[in-house]
Design a protein that fits this description.
Number of strands: 6
Order of helices and strands: HHHEHEEEEEHHHHHH
Shape: globular
Structural class: alpha/beta
Strand order of the largest sheet: 1-2-6-5
Largest sheet: 4 strands, mixed
Number of helices: 10
Helix content: 40-55%
Distance between the termini: 38 Å
Strand content: 5-15%
């Protein structure tokens, strides 16, 4: 298994990444500087592994590192503790699921995913979906931010839509997120169109991950739809890219 690493991101490569990624170009100079330094450290501490015949160039690896670090500019490297690897498939990948219902019956099925992560395991991504998100940077989708949000969420040992926060802020966060989540669930159940992707109604942890995508890829839409949630995310992640 080939391990792709790079100790630094050279100036020319960084300029190329920023010029081709509105999420990076839309940051102010200081935040973009922090993103570069954090990305370099990510490349030193994490392994990015292409699988299933996928080949990644060094600039692709650096791009992935920077995308992973975009939600961590204010949180820092401590927010990526507990795991070591990013696995990248060429396209959406299949996973086996199972569930025992209330009657004790086992149900098994396959899911096709663009990304997956959990507390201590690797972060898994579909390269095709990463590229699709980059092609429409203001569409509200960013699978890397989504899966990194799950990693951040799990830092307190629970994947529940609430990352580690000071007690007072935690109470306000829980109140505002729960209110918006419940309203979204009601709208989805009623078959109404929603301005935020309906997948956010799957569970509180998915709600947090989806609105995190919007914070980076469609912040104006998030502010219009859920101003309290947007304010919490701005405080948590820092100002979103403006483009």
């Amino acid at each position: 298994m080939r391990r792709l690493r790079a100790p630094v991101i050279e100036d020319a490569l960084w300029q190329h990444l920023c010029s081709h990624t509105p999420w990076f170009a839309g940051l102010d100079d200081l935040r973009r500087w922090h993103l570069r330094r954090l990305s370099e450290r990510f490349l030193q501490e994490k392994t990015i592994t292409p699988v299933a015949g996928l080949s990644l160039e060094q600039q692709d690896v650096a791009h992935l590192a920077a995308l992973c670090c975009l939600p961590l500019i204010d949180l820092g490297a401590t927010a990526w503790r507990g795991w070591s690897q990013v696995i990248v498939y060429p396209d959406a990948f299949r996973v086996q699921r199972s569930h025992v219902d209330a009657a004790g019956v086992m149900h098994e099925w396959e899911d096709e995913l663009a990304g997956e992560s959990w507390e201590a395991g690797p972060l898994i991504l579909s390269w095709a979906d990463v590229q699709a998100d980059l092609a429409e940077p203001d569409a509200g989708f960013c699978v890397v931010a989504h899966e990194m949000a799950h990693k951040i969420d799990a830092l307190d040992g629970e994947l529940d839509g609430t990352p580690p926060l000071p007690a007072r802020w935690l109470r306000m966060w829980a109140r505002d997120f729960q209110q918006e989540y419940e309203q979204l669930c009601k709208a989805v159940d009623a078959g109404q169109d929603t301005s935020i992707d309906s997948y956010a109604a799957e569970a509180p942890e998915e709600f947090f991950a989806v609105v995190s995508e919007y914070h980076f890829s469609a912040p104006k839409r998030l502010r219009q739809a859920m101003p309290e949630v947007a304010a919490h995310l701005r405080r948590f992640y820092g100002p979103p890219p403006e483009f």
